[in-house]
Each structure stands twice: as structure tokens, then as C-alpha cells.
Amino acid sequence: MTNRRTQPPHCCRPTSRRTFLADVGFGFTGLALGALLHREGVVRADPQGEWSPPTGQPAFAPRSKSIIWIFLSGGYSHLETFDPKPALNQFAGKTFIDTPYPDPLKNPLHDLRSRAVVTTVREKYSKIYPLQVGWAKRGESGIEMTDWWPHLAGCVDDISFVRSMYTTDNDHAAENQIHTGRHKLDEVQPAIGAWVKYGLSSLNDSLPEFAVLGGPTRADTRESFGSLYLGPEHSGVVLSTDPKNPLPFGTRGADLLEEEQRREYELIGRLNGLAAVEYPADDALRARIQAYELAFRMQRAVPEALDLSAETAATQQLYGLDNPTTKPAGERLLAARRLVERGVRFVQVYPSPYGVWDSHRALKDNHTKLCAQVDQPVAALLKDLKRSGLWDDVTVVFCTEFGRTPAVEERAGGTDGRDHHPHGFTVWLAGAGIKRGFVHGATDELGFHAIEPGHYVTDLHATVLHLLGLDARKLEIPGRKRLDMDYGKPIEEILT
């Protein structure tokens, strides 16, 4: 019998995922190496599992190559954005039971879709709060949208709105839930961007497949682009539009010249090459040699990709980079376009800081200001994708963690805001594979419940995966039980 302790480490033996993660850690080089190992089939479960990762190729013909996922933190009001309800003005000041409509608090869907982390008076308000902005039918499609979106209103005929989304967390852990599909009280799952990276190969080996701009909004929201048991190589890579530091934690030190670093990598490569002679069957070592080259390429490719000064003055003005109000969101969305243009698969964009759309008080002032910050940049992105020829390759998703209550929030004497509302809200999609000028689903007359069949957040995930040619049910990890709800179902009605 062979004495295992006398064998050289890793000699002619498969690399287990556990050993791989222990070896490379969670650093920038680990991310780069992980990407290479994944694509080359080096990283796999232990041999007894008899399982290997996806091939990196779509399971069926994709309709899209890349996703730009725009997330507005805090919960924008669906009522004052993309699902205006005239009944709120008609019955303003009355309670739900004073209207001719069924009391939404007594609807069985209320308890079915509610899952509070703590006991609160949330969702029990019933005094109807009128719309805080005007609205009108927009475009040739006649889709209703409020007056706070003058630029996006001009793009309405290119958008599919889903007005029947719901989630189950009534607090801001829903920010993670919209990305992972799991409630705060459940086991956390990988984020949608991590599943995309796990399932598909890269279109550009010099850039991350899953990039994050403007986040994490807070330390406890990192789950929104985390990868958990898929391994850290599948987590989102945080990038910045700061031209002096576009690749946080991965920038070459100021005291190290590019040529010096190149020589360091060459030396490491030669040393690894010597080791490869001794262990010719060590695929992990071979991939590690290439990983240093990839890390070096990313240090050069990322600054170029995020160099917004390379854009024309007209493009910069289109995104509002010349206006302090729209510049932060404009920079991130323009950067997102440049990344997908260079083959990045999934770009998760946070145009606004953490929780700013959370309008418990002063909703009118809050949403007036915030809509003005993102309206022009988001509309610019859609226009830019069309004029640049990317419209048929890129899908845009625009979402938030929940809507706002049709009733006024009266907690602590409140009179001018709306509380959290997971029971029904609106998201929209545009671009590759998506119908134009279309509305799917609805909330009831008061904007409370998503009318059946409502769409839980993982239906949005399944739609994204489907557009990319992936089947959520085939992205499985042995030993990791997922609920049927985790997979979701593509929203076929909005697909071309």
C-alpha cells in the first residue's frame, strides 16, 4: 500500500475545490486564477463526486450576451414611478374599507407573501395617500409613467415593464433578497451575477466577467454580489470610476514600475515552469502560471475600459457628466456600457447610495431629487446602446428591493411618506431579447397586491439566465439543496 505522506504534494492528483480555495485565498490573484481554473476545468468537486462544472457554453441559443443590472437601493415607490394609480387620488384620506375595492389587508395573499424579521406595525396602515406627482400615458404604446421621468418617458416604447413583482422581506435585507432570492431568515444563496459567471465562459480574458460599480452600498449588502459555495472566484469584482484607482485592491503599488512588475511575474513564471517539469500533470500549477499573466492584463485593461475621458463630449453630455446632479449615476452607467462593449458578462450598477430611495417621510421631495439624478443617465444608456449597435447584445434590468405602501405611513406622526411594500412593485427590462413598449402583470386598483400570477424575484433571475442561454435548474451543486422557488421561471411574456 502506498504511503500517502511520502507523495509529493498535488502530484498527478486532481485539485479539490477545498484545496484550491485554501491555496489561493480571497485576493485579487485568487479571482484571476479562479477564472482560469474554472474555464479550463481544473476546479472540480472531489473525485468521488463524479461531477464537473458547466462547460462555459450556453445550454441553448442565447438572446443576449451581457446584462447591465441597475439597482436603486431603498425601495422606490412603484406608485410614483411606473405604476400610477388614479384611485389613490380619488379616495385620498379614506381607508381601504371606504373604497369599492376589496380590503387588501384581508386578502389571503397578504399573509402568504409576508415574512417579517421583527414584529412591527408595518403594512397595517390603511389611510390612502394620494399620488405625489402627475402622470400621463407616454409614447406610441401609451404606457403610464409619472412626470418625474421626462428623459426615460422618451424611451418607453423600448421598455417592457413587469408590474407584478413581489418579495417577502419587509425590511432592507430585501436588497440582498432581490439578488440572491433568499429571505434573511434562510440560508444565503449565490447572487444572480455569480450564477452567470459560474455558468458562462469569458468574452474577454483581460476583464472580470462579473463587475460591480457603485457598491457595495454597505458592508451587510455584500451578499448582493457574493458567490458563497460557488467559490470566491465567482464573486463580483468591485470597480471604480475614479481614474486614479479604477481597480480597488488590485492596483500596482505606486513604488513599483510596470516593467518591474513584469519582471517579477516573469521570474515567478520561470520558477513555476521549473516546478512544472517536476510535476507535468499538475493542471493547477499550469493555470497558476497563466493567472499571473491575467492579473497583469487586468491591471492594464481595467483603467482603459473605465477611462471615460476617451468618450466624445457629446456622449459625456448625453449621460449628464457635465451636471453635478447627474454625474455620479452618469459615470457609472457610461462605465457599464464600456464594460459590456468589451465583453463583460454581468455589470451590477448602483447609481444611488444605500437606502436613499427609502421615503418614510417627505416622499415628494425625496423622489423629486432622486429621479432627477438617475433619469437622464438611465435614458442615455438605452439611447447609447441603440446607437452603438449593442442593443441586440445587451439586456438592461432596472429594479429595486420593494415598492411603497398605498397608505400613508403614520408611525410617529408621519404624514408625507410611504412605508416598505414587498407585496407588489414594478421592475423593467430593455434591450436584447425583450419586447418593446410592453406591460406585463399588474397590481390591484390600489397598487397593493401583485395580481396572480405574481412574480417572485427569482423569476427575474430565471429570465436573465434564460436570455443568456442558461437553464437555472442545470446550475446545480451536489450537496447544496435549493428550493423550487430558488430556480424561478422565465417571464416568457416579455421575451421576443
Sheet-strand content, in percent, reads: 5-15%
Q: Per the principal axes of the C-alpha atoms, what is the gross shape?
A: globular
Helix content: 25-40%
Structural class: alpha/beta
* Helix run count: 14
Strand count, sense and closure of the main sheet? 9 strands, mixed
Radius of gyration: 24 Å
Along the chain, the helix and strand elements come as HHEHHEEHEHHEEHHHHEHEEEEEEHH
- End-to-end Cα distance, whole Å, is 62 Å
Low-confidence stretches: 1-51
Tally of extended strands?
13
Question: Which CATH architecture of the largest domain is right?
Answer: 3-Layer(aba) Sandwich
CATH top level assignment of the largest domain? Alpha Beta
Give an overview of the whole structure.
The protein has 496 residues and is of the alpha/beta class. The chain has 2 domains: 15-53 and 249-294, no CATH class; 66-241 and 309-494, Alkaline Phosphatase, subunit A (3-Layer(aba) Sandwich), CATH 3.40.720. It is 31% helix and 11% strand. It has 14 helices and 13 strands. It has helices at residues 17-24, 28-40, 86-90, 108-112, 150-153, 174-180, 192-199, 258-278, 283-305, 313-318, 327-341, 363-387, 457-467, 484-487; strands spanning 66-72, 135-138, 143-146, 159-166, 210-213, 237-239, 346-349, 394-400, 403-404, 420-421, 425-431, 438-440, 455-456. Strands 1, 4, 5, 6, 7, 8, 11, 12 and 13 form a 9-stranded mixed sheet that branches. Helix 2 packs across helix 9 (283-305), helix 8 runs antiparallel to helix 9 and helix 11 (327-341) packs parallel to helix 12 (363-387). The radius of gyration is 24 Å and the shape is globular. The model is unreliable at 1-51 (pLDDT under 50).
